[in-house]
Amino acid sequence: MKLIPDKQLSILTIIFTSSIIIKTKMSYCLAIDGMQPESRRELHKNYHDNHYGFPIHDDNELFGRLIMEINQAGLSWETILKKEESFREAYSNFEIEKVAHYTEADRERLLNDPGIIRNKLKVNAAIENAKTILSLQEEFGSFEKWLEHHHPKTLPEWMKLFKKTFKFTGGEIVNEFLMSIGYLKGSHAESCPVYHTVLKHHPKWYTK
């Protein structure tokens, strides 16, 4: 069990009451208010309130979100949020064109950068996926238009498509990526005020 709550549909919380272990589910929306210290709560709150589930219309930012989701695999989302600025700096502000043309020297630089996740498979995936997105841009006009072209799909259908198209995109990564950019429902509980704010931005899952 992870000790740090992640942005999942739900997270298992263990509460000790009168020596009895009670298991309950707590959504990401509800978990944030109870986070300590305040700096940790604000880190998650900023992402939850201003980014999670909101549509992204910039290809470089879509690519950046994909990089972050891939790098979360096996780690907490909090770790990735703390390193976001370092990721931006290391990966040329997520500029697809630049990352797609990274050299072996760039790979080594990334693998030796303590500010990001130094995992060879994840580093290679970022570079190879950038190359793939360049091809998608050439064929469809943009990465966003490629996503729109395939919408709507069920999660299993998206998983199959991403597995065929990209590197290091397992089911959880695909699910979180698509929820985080508004293509799949589930980023916020319907009782969460941000849920209604997201709807005003016309996420794809709501406008299909």
Automatic annotation (TrEMBL):
Name of the protein: DNA-3-methyladenine glycosylase I
InterPro entries: Adenine_glyco, DNA-3mA_glycosylase, DNA_glycosylase
Keywords: Metal-binding, Zinc
One term of GO molecular function: metal ion binding
Cleaved signal peptide residues: none
Any single biological process term in GO: base-excision repair
Residues given in the record as Zn(2+) binding sites: H48, H188, C192
Organism phylogeny: Bacteria, Pseudomonadati, Bacteroidota, Flavobacteriia, Flavobacteriales
The species this protein was found in: Chryseobacterium geocarposphaerae
